[in-house]
Amino acid sequence: MKAYLVGGAVRDKLLNYPVKEKDWVVIGETPESMVAQGFKPVGKDFPVFLHPQTHDEYALARTERKTAPGYRGFVVHASPDVTLEQDLIRRDLTINAMAMTEDGELIDPFNGRQDLENRVFRHVSPAFSEDPVRILRLARFAARYAHLGFTLAPETRQLMLEMVENGETDYLVAERVWAELNKALQEKTPSAFFYTLRECQALASVFPEIDQLFGVPQPPQYHPEIDTGVHVLMVLDQAALLSEKAEVRFAALCHDLGKAKTPRDKWPSHHGHEQLGVPVLEQFCKRLRVPKSFKALSLLVMQYHTHCHRIFDLKSATLVDLLQKLGATRQDNHVDDFAKACEADMKGRKGFEQRDYPQRRILLKAAEVMANVDVQEVMQRELKGAQIGEAIRQLRIKAVKHFLQTEKSQD
Ligand code: CTP
Q1: Average of per-residue pLDDT across 207-231
Q2: Per-residue pLDDT for 408 more than 90?
Q3: pLDDT at position 72, please?
Q4: CA dist., res. 107 & res. 83, Å (int)
């Protein structure tokens, strides 16, 4: 059988990156001959098979022709006469359009290796524009490889601009947008995903809530970077340094959405942005069908990040009520994730990157103090309903107050 390693596996091998999954393309075979050799058919939209031992994916070489807008509007032609080159030319980027034999010989008709060495994202053919997901994929690769210095080829930027102008991105469905965003959030430099989309003007159509933060000024004494769009993407990258979790990174990205809603005559102040952002976030999550765990943490970070920054000035009661909202007394609470997103907010400002953020430690300690309060004695009192909850709250306030005073006296 003539089988070639293709796609991401070849790209990552050449980049000395760990190869996650191996995809193969097969020339000269039919579905029947594959099954006869023990392969298991799995493809819905085109013929793909699993290797009986390695379980790698083997696809028959195919061509694709666009017949209608959207994802399903492709006619797929897979037959033994389709050549390797024909299969490679239908692919998105030159760095993804290389093949390798089992002996490691590279087949590279579109100079993918050179683009990889020059750190360039370049489309293979005008067929790139037939699939708007490719814009998101390219932006996601930018987030993954930004530290290597990749740039967008001018002709690819131009093609993506035209796709956006022609309304191609309107065909993106929520599931695919969320899937790509979720993956991009888990990459090394998630901000590059958004900057790449902005470069081809796709940000305004795909993520208008983020796009609208650009051009909104903030007070220079707290935000030397001034622009809110720049700030939230700095916060996003700081969150990526502090946490592996996509939920924390998403919360960091969304925490200041309300700043786009501040009336212009109030700029650069953003009084009340914590609440102004709530309906924006609700709508954003609804539109993209963002999972509940992401939304829950984001709402907390959006509404209470300034509480965390001001933790040393908060009343003990306010802190206890915040910790209650973070579920501090439960095992699966949000305290650590919340505190990391708040730290990212403070460090995601020009010149603030190395600053200490003692608030995070204090919040975590206060949560521990609150969770360890012995509430048994309340049960012994003759209290009813809401009185019980209030009595427990008071005990916790007392304990947290004592903790905060001890902390202050040690300063
Ligand atoms: N591909 C494409 N257009 C798409 C999706 C995929 O041209 N919209 C091609 C690319 O050649 C890609 C290959 O199919 O390399 C495999 O796709 P996939 O496994 O989704 O991506 P990878 O490039 O392997 O990247 P990742 O590391 O994210 O899996």
Answers
A1: 97
A2: no
A3: 67
A4: 12
Instruction: Find the 17 Cα to ligand 1 centroid distance in Å.
Output: 15
Q: Domains plus CATH for the chain?
A: 1-118 (3.30.460.10), 372-410 (no CATH)
Mean of the per-residue pLDDT values for the chain? 95
* Cα–Cα dist 411/398, whole Å: 20
> What pLDDT is stored for residue 70 in this prediction?
66
Pocket around ligand 1: residues whose beta carbon is below 6 Å from it?
A: 7-8, 20, 23, 91-92, 96-97, 131, 133-134, 137
Q: Using CA positions, which residue lies closest to atom 7 of ligand 1?
A: 91
Kindly list the distances between the CA atom of residue 269 and the CA atoms of 23, 261, 311, 325, 339, in Å, as whole numbers in the listed order: 52, 12, 21, 27, 24
**Which of 25, 137, 168 should be mutated for ligand 1, with most atoms under 8 A from CB?**
137
Q: How confident is the model at residue 71 (pLDDT cuts 50, 70, 90)?
A: low
Q: What six digits make up the tokens of 101?
A: 């034999």
Ligand 1 centroid to 91 CA: how many Å?
A: 8
